[in-house]
Specification:
- The protein is of the alpha+beta class.
- The protein has one domain: Beta Barrel (OB fold (Dihydrolipoamide Acetyltransferase, E2P)).
- The protein has 4 helices and 8 strands.
- The strands form 2 sheets. The chain has a 5-stranded mixed beta sheet. A 3-stranded antiparallel beta sheet has the order 6-7-8.
- A hairpin with a 2-residue loop joins strand 7 and strand 8.
- The longest helix is centred in the last third of the chain and has 9 residues.
- The chain is globular.
C-alpha cells in the first residue's frame, strides 16, 4: 500500500468486540485517544484465519476515515520501482470478491510475492452497504 495512507504501526494489546459489526471488523481499540475499528484483512481475502490474534496492527488513514488492519509482523518499508509492479487480473475465479476489489497489484521481491492493497478501495469496500449485508 502507499506509504501516505499509513499513520502508524502499533503492538496490538487489547481489542473491544462490538456487537452487530460485520465479521471482518473484529472490534475497536484506542490509539492515542482515537477509537479505531480493527479489520481482519484475512477474512476479506478469504485466507486462513490466524490461530491467535496477530501481534501488530497498522493504522490506515484515507481522508477522514481511519481503520487498523491486523498484521503478523511489523511491516517493512520497501521502495518499489514502477517496473516491479504487476497489475493483478481482476475477475480470477479463485479470488474473493474483496480481493478483486482491493488488491491493486503485486510486487515480486526475491522469492516473495507481496500484494499491494488499494486503501481507497478498501475503505470504499468496507463502507459499502453490500459488505455490511453480505459479510
Amino acid at each position: 500500500m502507499d506509504l501516505q495512507h499509513i499513520r502508524e504501526v502499533f503492538p496490538l494489546e487489547f481489542v473491544t468486540p462490538i456487537p452487530g459489526m460485520p465479521p471482518v471488523v473484529i472490534g475497536m481499540t484506542n490509539v492515542r485517544g482515537s477509537v479505531v475499528p480493527i479489520v481482519d484483512i484475512r477474512l476479506l481475502l478469504e485466507l486462513p484465519q490466524a490461530e491467535t490474534l496477530p501481534p501488530f496492527a497498522v493504522v490506515l488513514r484515507h481522508e477522514d476515515y481511519q481503520l487498523a488492519i491486523l498484521v503478523d509482523r511489523s511491516p517493512e518499508i520497501m521502495s518499489v520501482l514502477p517496473e516491479q509492479f504487476e497489475a493483478t487480473p481482476h475477475g480470477s475465479p479463485e479470488d474473493s470478491e474483496a480481493s478483486r476489489f482491493i488488491v491493486h497489484g503485486i510486487v515480486r521481491i526475491e522469492d516473495t510475492v507481496h500484494q499491494i492493497l488499494d486503501v481507497t478501495q478498501l475503505v470504499a469496500y468496507l463502507d459499502s452497504e453490500e459488505t455490511t449485508e453480505n459479510v
